[in-house]
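Lab notebook, bench 4. Still working through the backlog of constructs that have no structural model yet. Next entry is a single chain of 434 residues. Request: give me the structure tokens for it.
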Amino acid sequence: MHLRLEPTALAGAYMRVRALSEALAATLEPEDQCIQSMPDASPTKWHLAHTSWFFETFVLAGPGYARYREGWDFLFNSYYQTVGSMHARAQRGLLSRPTVAEILAYRRAVDEQVLHSLPHMSAAKRGLVELGLHHEQQHQELILTDIKHALSLNPLAPAYRDAGPTTDSVAQLPALRWVEDPGGLVAIGRATDAAGFGFDNEGPRHKQWLEPFAVASRPVSCGEYLAFMADDGYARPQLWLSEGWDAVQREGWRAPAYWRAPGQANEPWRVFTLDGLQLLDPSAPVCHVSFYEADAYARWRGARLPREAEWEHIAQALEVDGNLLPNSAPELVSAPLHPVPTPEAPSADPSGLAQMFGDTWEWTASPYQAYPGYRPPEGAIGEYNGKFMCNQLVLRGGSCATPHDHVRASYRNFFHASTRWQFSGLRLAKDLNG
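Model written out:
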């Protein structure tokens, strides 16, 4: 979504993004939209309300403006301390009221006022609308990942939707190749005057020195990860970071999240997806692994995870394309909503790299921290990214649940090392010197 903030184009993007959020929720019953399966997740209806709260708070509110409903600013604020207090995050699933219908009416009211005001807004205010749209796209991904986690806890393993797209038989997984880069002094990060949208944490653009390195031509597959498991990967402490080993023991991890072990030796593995329980596809990229699991697998392979500067450096020249969430509601029916197998010939791309964008977020070895020269924006918007730059790791590339026009090479996602409910996978890297 690369807009020039022209009111007509912005209005079109606004209606499209807002419609997609509601389309993602349309397959769910009201009962589905109320549940919260863990503190890190939120009910679907809360996402629909919070994204409207964002526009109401940062675009509409001002002198003479009356809030849509008394107290809703408390219910649907997420973490913006400078604009007021908020309901406890872990208790969002206890809010049976407002109802789904009331929240949808709230969205209509906010939409009407934003669209009415757009032609008269300043460029700065239109910039906040665009920020709000990208914020909503982040919550579109969370709608899918959060409801997937909730449905996975149901013993009946219900599907998010009635029927997803069917696939043909899987082709053979392409051999993994190493794509080498000489490194040197490279520029990464988003330039201040770059065209299109970018979050504040993507810049400023700056120089970093990279030693010669190589990255794998494709992500690690489920079949390759099964080999790690068969080699007692979860039982060998020498492969694990200390905190990772503690997590394995504490949580009882023996496979990626959502995998279902065979009942008998001759039965296949299954995996819970947004289309319900499916046979595990060994050719598809592995996903729903924590940073600890990604790091342990890389060690087992005698490799490592890429650093975020290496990832961005090799991705900057690539087209953003792949198995990403469609931008508009009518295209949802054909969206896989799950990683798909690597194409048979990734070398057809001049870079030799496959699936750099989409399918799974790729863990990097880099901590989420400020780039040199970074300054958070003034005011409440400065709470959006900067205050989370501690104790988290960077992921790159987007996933099958990331809106297509939301991701780019400079995009920095970030989660705690133990996170597994996101579509997170890995690509191997290695040093070429030493």
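Notes after review: The longest helix spans residues 123-152. Residues 7-152 form one domain. Flag for follow-up if needed.
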